[in-house]
Amino acid sequence: MPSRRAYYVYGARNHTVQVHVRHDGVAPGSSGAIVIASNTTTGAATTDTRDITVQADFTGSVAHYSACAYFVNISDTGTAVTNGINVNLNLGGATWTPATDPVQFQAYDSAGLQPNTASQWANIRLSGDFVRGNGIGQSIVVDSTQSAAGLLTIDIPTAGISLPTLAGFTTSYLGGP
Fold first, then answer.
1. What's the total number of domains in the chain?
2. What is the residue range of 96's domain?
3. Of 37, 40, 46, 164, which one has the fewest beta carbons inside 10 Å?
4. What count of other Cβ atoms lies within 10 Å of the Cβ of residue 77?
């Protein structure tokens, strides 16, 4: 049976991975094909995720995923921290659907999805071919705003696309036309 997630990292440090995601559009997907999670609900900061590099190439359908790269922090007490993450996300060979976000950030506690969080995503770098439509706002969805702004660097060709400020992030755009 095929895996529903290509890569799920939780509480890890110093990973470098290359994954190729090929989905047939029929089998079940998940909340994210690539999941990068930190959690302080079950432990201390030892479950923070840090210094991860992911090269992810997608082909086939992304219809059964909520997000291609899914960043999730889970915390009832303390602050979950996801720090030093580099994701090169190439979706040019994939079939798009409006229901799938290329990149999504969410924070949860035991009550569910939280619109605001003390948990943090810091020093996140996104690159590759993941922009759909004409803007970052259609490609990166921030459902939970962090109280302390984390640095988000987006390294893509920027000609002809809108470059918004993303809630809870200090956003840096690199790349040229």
1. 1
2. 7-174
3. 46
4. 9
